[in-house]
Amino acid sequence: RGGAAHPVTVAETSPSARAAAPVAPSAAVSAGSSAPAGKVTSGVPSSRAATTSKLAAPAATPKTTALAAASKAPATFPANSELTCVSKLCKKEPGSCCCSLPAIDNKNPVAYDIQTVPDESKLIERFKKAGVQEGGWWTPTDCKPERSLAIIIPFRKREVHLLIFVQYMHEYLQRQKLAHTIYIVDQVDDLPFNRAMLFNVGYKEAMAERQYTCMAFHDVDNIPVDPMLSYRCDDTPIHMSSRTDKWNWGLAYSSFVGGVTKQQPSQVAAMNGFANRFWGWGGEDDDILFRWRKFKYGLNRPHFPLGRYATVKRDHFQSSQPNPGRFRELARSAQLQATDGLSNLKYSLVEKRKHALYTRLMVKLQK
Predict the structure, then answer these.
(1) Residue environment code for 124-152, b if the CB has 16+ CB neighbours within 10 A, otherwise e
(2) What are phi and psi of 310, to 5 degrees?
(3) How far apart are CA 196 and CA 252, in angstroms?
(4) Using CA atoms, how far apart are residues 152 and 217, in angstroms rounded to an integer?
(5) What is the C-alpha radius of gyration for the chain, rounded to an integer number of angstroms?
(6) How far is CA 355 from CA 159, 163, 255, 340, in A?
């Protein structure tokens, strides 16, 4: 997909090592506790998940036993030094405290069947009781969040995946005490699907609503597995989904940054967002990596066993065919980075629909 055009600064598992990696059960992934087949189980993420680095290639692919041992690490968090608003009034007035990351709740993990479609009316009722507001905004009421997250999902005809995603992610993020909104950027025109351009639309529309401190650019069929993976932003952009069951708990190739990434809105603006010229499948994520490197962000991923994502395998709608011109367009990335992105974004917002669990942006893109 053109990734080899740029030197790789992160050493990832080799194809031969990935082939030897443990294969996930037929429909099951678990972390922090055991789960029946077809379920993802996750507890509360740890602040250690915010620590990322340029990975060194492992001497050998971790065995299943090592993976299980890692997932049963002590369920405690180090002091949350990144938060500064903790007050002496905390004990008397809990609502005045800055939100910190709670301990992992191994007795009550987040566990859902990610291959079965949930009942939407029951989901709405449940998350309304949990405080999710119209449009999919949730914020903790027992503390003051310093940070807020917008999840941007490029979308076309993935309703089944969407229900599974919001069922899992709202509780996952609530357990992080992380204020958040889920934005569905739904391409309703007849043009080929344009994932990166939908990211730009989501960024622009979300920031017009609220000054978020972090953005996760997220495929709707990717579900985080590890109980310690934090969705708080770091100083550099992070490729979150560095280990997926789709690729035998590895990567499609070493410089791959597809699936899920997170970065600060200021970083998105600095690199002129994402390329608008990739119509159809492929190429846009390689251009993202080019932009990260141009601005000296590098390629950073969570340490193993963090970064594991399960893939929703049912009802997969193929939104577009591979883009035959993606390699030609990648060759022009350096030339067009400053002029192709947020600066030349053209679209029309057909409707902004405030659903009980998310905000749906129905858009028509313009070439």
Answers:
(1) eebbeeeebeebbbbbeeebbbebbbbbb
(2) -95, 150
(3) 19
(4) 5
(5) 20
(6) 13, 12, 36, 32
Q: What is the pLDDT of residues 287-304, one digit of tens each?
A: 999 999 999 998 999 988
The residue with tokens 């929703």 is 312
- Cα–Cα distance for residue pair 257/218, rounded to 1 Å: 11
- The DSSP string of 14-32 is -HHHHHHSPPPPTT-EESS
- At 15-46, the pLDDT tens digits run 333 333 333 333 334 444 434 444 544 444 33
User: Side by side, which strands form the sheet with 260-263?
Assistant: 238-239, 260-263, 214-218, 148-155, 179-187, 359-365, 347-354
A 10 A CB-CB count for 153 gives 28
Residue type, 297: Y
Bridge partners, residue 194, by sequence:
none
311-341 burial, b if ≥16 CB within 10 A, otherwise e? bbeeeeeebbeebeebeebbeebeebbeebb
Structure tokens that stand for 84 in this block: 């500064």
Using the structure block, give the residue that is written with the tokens 């858009």.
363
Distance separating alpha carbons of residues 258 and 299, to the nearest angstrom: 12
As a residue count, the chain comes to: 367
Peptide bond before residue 109 is cis, with ω within 30 degrees of 0: no
* Tokens, residue 62: 């971790």
Which of 290, 175, 298 shows the shortest CA–CA distance to 231? Answer: 175
Q: What is the mean pLDDT of residues 300-310?
A: 89
What pTM was computed for the model?
0.76
Sheet-wide strand order for 243-244 = 222-224, 308-311, 243-244
Phi, psi of 110 (to 5 degrees): -75, 120
Place of tokens 């997926």: 244
CA distance to 147, 150, 364, per residue, from 347 (Å) = 29, 20, 6
Q: Report how many helices (DSSP H) and strands (DSSP E) the chain contains, helices first.
A: 9, 15
Q: What is the DSSP letter of 144?
A: B
Residue appearing with tokens 């859902």: 112
